[in-house]
Amino acid sequence: MSEAVDLRGLTKDFGDLRAVDGLDLRVHRGEMFALVGPDGAGKTTCMRLICGAMLPTDGEAFVEGVGVTEDPERVKRMVGYMSQRFSLYGELSVAENLRFFSDLRGVKSKERLQRAGELLSMTRLQEFTARRAEQLSGGMKQKLALACTLIHVPRVLLLDEPTTGVDPVSRREFWRILHNLKKNDVTILVSTPYMDEAERCDRVGFVHHGKLIDVGTPDELLDGLAGGVLRVYTPRAFAAQKVLGGIAGVESVQMFGDRLHLLCGDPGTVRTAAVSALENAGHGDFKIETAAPTLEDVFVSLTSHQG
Amino acid sequence: MSHSPAIKVDRLNKRFGDFVAVDDVSFEVPRGRIVGFLGPNGAGKSTTIRMLCGILPPTSGSATVRGVDVVKNPEGVKQQLGYMSQKFSLYEDLTVVQNINFYAGVYRLEREMLVARREWVIELAGLSGKEHMLAGNLSVGVRQRLALGCALIHQPPILLLDEPTSGVDPTSRRSFWDLIHSVAQEGHTVLVTTHYMDEAEYCDSLVLINRGRIVAEGTPEELKGSSARGKIVEIRCRRSWEAADLLENRPGVKDVALFGAGLHVVVDNGGPGEEEIRRMLEGFDVTRIASVKASLEDVFVALTRGEDG
User: Fold this and answer.
1) What are phi and psi of A16, to 5 degrees?
2) Which residue in A195, A238, A295 is closest to B185 by CB distance?
3) Rounded distance between C-alpha atoms, residue B162 and residue A302, angstroms
4) Nearest CA to CA, how far is A33 from chain B (Å)?
């Protein structure tokens, strides 16, 4: 059986800029796959190439075995793409937006009513069908955009930062909906700046400068992190940050209120060096402990090594 | 006046027709502090900030910024404030220098002042040698730094940041927060809204608003300690989402939420204990089950549940 998404040497140039650079990636059917990477790494371009919104300069994207450049229309029927920007018509109501997208996608009127009903109930928007899209809250807008993306029952869902600017409660609800979709064997490729969201996907791919630089399950990526994390508690966190940043082997120092989070190659050596550096700088009242790394540490480590 | 708060909001109200966007809100921001202003979409954060900027008159109540009244003297308030939002701050079709000049013009900087401040902004944003690039061609992280510099061009004592890091990648968010901390270290007061609960942890104190009303205030530690809603049990297991479905609606379970790759289960006093939950999840390969302190996200969710969105 072919993969849900299969990218082979996918490349896209915009003038002198190579936005996607020979990308190879396979997403299995029914998988939930997170695409993460710095801003401008090529995630959005990659999604737009998969859904046929633009053509690659080189290479090919296959969706369930069908090449996007060979048969873009067939691919479009299989794919639902939710872009980063608000993709709804603000002056149309919830129901009208759904109607518009079903017409656009050629959904037959009999199916449309049933499908729209299911999607409204899934997104808990039934009570708001007459409300204009521009008057919905941020979380509701995203749910409506998702419903419109799903109207033609796509097999592969491409979601470009669907929860950016959405509050934590709405974000949780959005992910519960995705979870239910996954049960129906929908393949989901989602980009996100939230590492806690990436962590709940089956696999995560790191994109940097248009290339896939690492891929694996969240646990595999954490295991692959060279080094570890130290947590330093000190009442003078701001001053300590400067001291600790100068120690050899410290990759990054991040301040969280009264504590500092140190990502370092060799936590044992750095710990000894940190104790004497802090004492020399007159910090008496501090505590250092080792901590479990998170996917965000992996992200910071991968992107800082690659420059 | 020197010890008065940087911002003092007193029983502020704003109505749009029948809709009460801000409902009797009072809070203070002490000088030199970083205060996080949190709440769901549509809770009234941006409306409050727009009133503080003197661009939206309140329906009733008052607000002062360094003692300057936002209703009586909206122009005076603008000199006290720098404002930046993720949505709009820079003209993408203007160059770096043109954007800085534009802000300098808005705040009527003297010519001698302009040259020095322009240098300062360029250095802050790390844009030496790139002064003539279009703002639209900068990476998002650099654009944020430039926008922050422009907001500070007239050296305002107070900085209002409305979702400054929305959609920004983790590395750029970290370096942006380093910048906020150094700005605060120089004596600026910062009021910042964010949907990232890890960023809320960076703040000295927090104000949480829901449906136009303040629902909690305190330091991040105080807010996490005050969640007396029940016990939180953290679980790591396989197929955590199925586990969430299974635990939901069990007696004594108030809430189940995905938390990173694991679950946070809110259990009533007298609800199922850890061993009981472990038995319910037989076959899910539970690798960790433990009572944990509430995270800020748990607190946020507990205090804002019941939204329509």
Assistant:
1) -80, -10
2) A238
3) 29
4) 13
Are A35 and A96 in the same domain?
Answer: yes
Encoding tokens for residue A13? 């140039």
- Nearest 5°: phi and psi at A260? -120, 145
- Pick from A128, A167, A196: CB nearest B41: A167
Backbone angles phi, psi at B229, to 5 degrees: -90, -10
Q: What pLDDT sits at residue B254?
A: 87
Write the pLDDT tens digit of every residue in B154-165: 999 999 999 998
Instruction: Kindly tell me the burial class for residue A41, based on how many C-beta atoms sit within 10 Å of its own C-beta (0-12, 13-18, 19 or more).
Output: buried
Domain boundary among A219, A249, A266: A219
**What percent of chain A stands above pLDDT 90?**
68
The pTM of this model reads 0.85
Q: With 0-12 CB in 10 A as exposed, 13-18 as middle and 19+ as buried, what is B128?
A: exposed
On whether both A61 and A167 belong to a single domain, the answer is yes
State which residues form the domain around A291.
225-304
Number of domains in chain A: 2
List the end-to-end C-alpha distance of chain B, in Å, as a whole number.
42
| pLDDT tens readout for residues B43-57 | 999 999 999 999 999
